[in-house]
């Protein structure tokens, strides 16, 4: 059931979240969806994880009675999902919350899901949640020195072999002295990175700047990022850095692989497409990226989750050629990505939805410990120490939100 809601009560979606560990979030510029409770869910794994989840959702939609007077993307029945990066190991989840609150422009709504038309919950902003306490960060699977050796190994293979690009990541552990209230972390991420999508699905959280795919009334958008520098805080210097990014052949080459991989994967599922010729520079507080927004029109019957499945893993998180890069990651990266760098987002009963890439992210592994992730694209000309510094810049959003 969907009801029109008063958009003033819903001023701050994240403030409505109750004090529970598994609350759900997909928020950008104050708009999006939050949810809680579980009306239904599927956990799946393996190469067929997207197909299993899509079929489960389709069957659920078929047996549900939906009252949806609002009729916007994200109203009615909605599933939040988060998928493993690799075919194996790692689990994926798609869940329909029992309460979803959404906001889009001037329209706001509350959806309740249950066996009968449950009354909508009383919504009110929760008191300010407590920030994480005494957080200590440490290396996880490999330390910086070891990781640079892994990058050097990849560089020599890229110079000698047929691989053009591989994305390698590393992780950190954050341990707090008391249970982490995820709502505080989400509020901080959303406040500091309003142009990113602040997400949380089953203990995986972050603020991603990269939209793998959005389908909205048949219109498809994908924001591809690849090629990164990090600002120094000195305005003139950073201005020069931004223009150097747009002219750096290493970054342009890396970006081209990523944009091409998305355009090629979308093409069979779209009736028309627009791929801009040159990228623009996307400025975030911690890094700047080369970015390309690709748009298209989805072929009939192709849902946003189908599109995410076709796109994953793009060269922004895998590499080029895709299969060889994914095999090299499994061979040398020395850590489990789990759902890091996998699709995360939501889909409604019509197939419209938004799927980001779970970057600038971390996973709660128990109530006071999180594993943080950051990676970068490696090409034949990459320098391991510079790549290590890039991961440090990419850890900043989550580190700050947890500190
Ligand atoms: C892999 C990550 O980021 C990706 C890699 C980028 C790069 O190598 O330049 C840029 C943006 C993302 O596509 C990450 O943040 O962990």
UniProtKB/TrEMBL annotation:
It is an enzyme of class 5 (isomerase). Keywords: Isomerase. The keyword ATP-binding does not apply. Residues 145-394 form the Chorismate-utilising enzyme C-terminal domain. Its EC number is 5.4.4.2. InterPro entries: ADC_synthase, Chorismate_C, IsoChor_synthase. The keyword Transcription does not apply. It catalyses: chorismate = isochorismate. It holds the Pfam family Chorismate_bind. Belongs to the isochorismate synthase family. This is isochorismate synthase. It comes from Nocardioides luteus.
């Amino acid at each position: 059931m969907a009801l029109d809601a008063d958009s003033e009560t819903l001023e701050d979606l994240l403030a409505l979240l109750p004090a529970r560990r598994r609350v759900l979030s997909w928020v950008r510029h104050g708009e999006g969806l939050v949810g809680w409770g579980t009306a239904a869910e599927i956990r799946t794994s393996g190469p067929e994880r997207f197909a299993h989840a899509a079929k489960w959702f389709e069957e659920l939609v078929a047996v549900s009675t939906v009252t949806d007077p609002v009729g916007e993307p994200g109203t009615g029945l909605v599933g939040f999902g988060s998928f493993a990066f690799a075919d194996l190991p790692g689990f994926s989840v798609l869940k329909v919350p029992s309460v979803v609150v959404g906001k889009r422009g001037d329209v706001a709504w509350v959806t309740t899901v249950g066996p009968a038309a449950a009354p909508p919950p009383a919504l009110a902003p929760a008191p300010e949640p407590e920030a994480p306490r005494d957080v200590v960060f440490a290396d996880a699977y490999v330390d910086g020195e070891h990781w640079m050796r892994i990058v050097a190994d990849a560089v020599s293979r890229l110079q000698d072999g047929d691989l053009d690009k591989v994305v390698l990541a590393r992780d950190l552990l954050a341990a707090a002295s008391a249970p982490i209230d995820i709502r505080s972390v989400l509020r901080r991420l959303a406040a500091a990175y309003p142009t990113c999508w602040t997400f949380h699905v089953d203990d995986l959280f972050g603020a991603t700047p990269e939209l793998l795919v959005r389908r909205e009334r048949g219109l498809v958008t994908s924001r591809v990022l690849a090629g990164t520098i990090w600002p120094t805080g000195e305005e003139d210097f950073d201005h020069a850095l931004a223009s150097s990014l747009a002219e750096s052949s290493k970054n342009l080459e890396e970006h081209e692989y990523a944009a091409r991989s998305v355009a090629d994967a979308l093409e069979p599922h779209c009736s028309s497409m627009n791929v801009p010729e040159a990228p623009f520079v996307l400025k975030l507080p911690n890094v700047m990226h080369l970015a390309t927004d690709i748009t298209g029109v989805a072929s009939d019957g192709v849902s946003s989750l189908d599109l995410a499945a076709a796109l994953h893993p793009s060269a922004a998180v895998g590499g080029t050629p895709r299969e060889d890069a994914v095999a090299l990651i499994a061979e040398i990266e020395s850590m489990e990505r789990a759902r890091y760098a996998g699709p995360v987002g939501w889909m409604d009963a019509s197939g419209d939805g938004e799927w980001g890439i779970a970057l600038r992210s971390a996973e709660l592994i128990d109530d006071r410990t999180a594993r943080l992730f950051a990676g970068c694209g490696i090409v034949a000309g990459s320098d391991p120490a510079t790549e290590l510094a890039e991961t440090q810049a990419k850890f900043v959003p989550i580190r700050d939100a947890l500190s």
